[in-house]
């Protein structure tokens, strides 16, 4: 595996699956976090995730500059969690999601270490009732498609069970 996209819904087990896959690699492990703690509940979630990972992991916070954060990792393996929050951050910062997605794909093509990217599949529900939510859903869906074409492997996780959509083998 050089690049893997893991898709799923909320609480599907996608992050746990991604962490287990990356922990199978030798060397240092880097967790690139896109989440931002805007409230106490999110701060608690972030702390819980950090405790679950253990001492082998180094955490890098990259709410906006994800391609650069991945490129800075020179050894070991990387877990990015998650692309969907990254899209939300880009929209709120009024950044160009398409340009950022293209930069991320270019960075993945040049990446020297194995990388797993976590993303929510947000297109399985109803059409949102407001323009911002539709813009978010569309940007997340387009990014997932772009990343899926770029990476070697794509896995969909539901109820903790992985379903391989694209195999690198």
Describe this structure in words.
With 169 residues, this protein is α/β, with parallel strands linked by helices. The protein has a single domain, classed as Rossmann fold (3-Layer(aba) Sandwich). 44% of the residues lie in helices and 23% in strands. It is built from six helices and seven strands, in the order E-H-E-H-E-H-E-H-H-E-H-E-E. The protein has a seven-stranded mixed beta sheet with strand order 3-2-4-5-1-6-7, with helices on both faces. A hairpin with a 2-residue loop joins strand 6 and strand 7. Helix 4 crosses helix 6 (131-150) and helix 5 (97-110) packs parallel to helix 6. The radius of gyration is 15 Å and the shape is globular. The model has no long low-confidence stretch (mean pLDDT 93).
Give the helices and strands, then pairings.
Layout: E1 3-8, H1 14-23, E2 29-33, H2 40-53, E3 57-61, H3 66-71, E4 77-81, H4 83-92, H5 97-110, E5 115-120, H6 131-150, E6 153-158, E7 161-166
Parallel strand pairs: 1-5, 1-6, 2-3, 2-4, 4-5
Antiparallel strand pairs: 6-7
CATH T-level fold name: Rossmann fold
> Shape, please?
globular
**Quick one: CATH class?**
Alpha Beta
Broad structural category: alpha/beta
Element order: H for helix, E for strand: EHEHEHEHHEHEE
Q: What Rg is obtained from the alpha carbons, in whole angstroms?
A: 15 Å
Instruction: Work out the strand percent.
Output: 15-25%
Spatial order of strands in the largest sheet: 3-2-4-5-1-6-7
Architecture (CATH level 2) name: 3-Layer(aba) Sandwich
Overall mean pLDDT stands at: 93
Give the CATH superfamily: P-loop containing nucleotide triphosphate hydrolases
Question: What is the strand tally?
Answer: 7
Largest sheet: 7 strands, mixed
Poorly predicted runs of 5 or more residues: none
Rounded to the nearest angstrom, the distance between the terminal CA atoms is 9 Å
